[in-house]
Sequence to fold (303 residues):
Amino acid sequence: MLLGPSGCGKTTLLKLVNRLYEPTRGRITVDGTDIHALPAPALRRRIGYVIQQSGLFPHMRISENIGIVPTLLKWDKARIATRVDELLDLVGLPPADYRRRYPAQLSGGEQQRVGLARALAADPSTLLMDEPFGAVDAITRTRLQDELRQIHTRFRQTVLFVTHDIEEAVRLADEIVVMREGRVVQFATPMRIVMEPVDSFVANLVGANDVLRRLSLVSVSEVLTPLAGPVGPVEPRLQRAARLRDALGALLESGADRVVVIDDDARPLGTVDLGVIQRAGTRSGAGWPAEPAVGFSGQQGSV
Ligand SMILES: Nc1ncnc2c1ncn2[C@@H]1O[C@H](COP(=O)(O)OP(=O)(O)OP(=O)(O)O)[C@@H](O)[C@H]1O
Ligand SMILES: [Mg+2]
Fold:
């Protein structure tokens, strides 16, 4: 996930990867191959690109939009039609309903799905996604994120994903690249970025100064301690994807001393107690330069 303020160079970085821009220096490799060893069209065939606001061609039907790259690759018509239907299924749009429509006859979220289907058409090993879910409501966004994650679990593409949204970055990232003014300022796992931001810029960007925010970004599975003793009947259970904020809520609600983290088959994996939550909520040793305290200057109580 590439994270950073407007104008820091996220889109530029994506365009360097598929050679819409050429670097003045440095080397870029994709799957271990220097991208300059391949002709640009061959390279782009291996790299799907989802641009902001879906970028569908308005005068082309959904099937034609999705079939653009296969058509360029001169696949025969039957193979393209099969592939289009397969991709529509994959992104959750029933082909019979959607393949003949035009982009204007789709909602924003549906258009984003088609954009993703189009990028996946020729089975790329790498996906570049530039704020693909920026323009949809929160519920649709979560659904699209889940779908992307399922697709990724199945096909294991390398995904470079640009976002402004720290929650999205943490939910989807293996690693986060924080950029500022054309430079990478931190490259680390979500956990490290939130717990050990390298400076106040990163800390502000990810909201690391807000305790509940920090707790909402760390999953229980990242900090659990091995199970000691039998699990009591009143001890709350949480799935491993739950956040420390959920764990804190569960502790306060149940009055128990610890929550039990369980796997998909409800087997206990370990526990999280208040001490663990407290340590995670406290700034870690590495720390970062303190920000001046900002008071609440609005009119309290007004709506
Ligand atoms: N083709 C171009 N020629 C010259 N400068 C450009 C070009 N494209 C972008 N820039 C500049 O490069 C900088 C980085 O732009 P870029 O589009 O990569 O930002 P970004 O991080 O994607 O921002 P946003 O979040 O707003 O999309 C900006 O200052 C922009 O004005
Ligand atoms: Mg951009």
About this structure: The domain at 2-195 is CATH 3.40.50.300 (Rossmann fold). The pocket of magnesium ion (ligand 2) is lined by residues 10-11, 130 (CB under 6 Å). The radius of gyration is 22 Å. Confidence is low (pLDDT under 50) at residues 285-303.
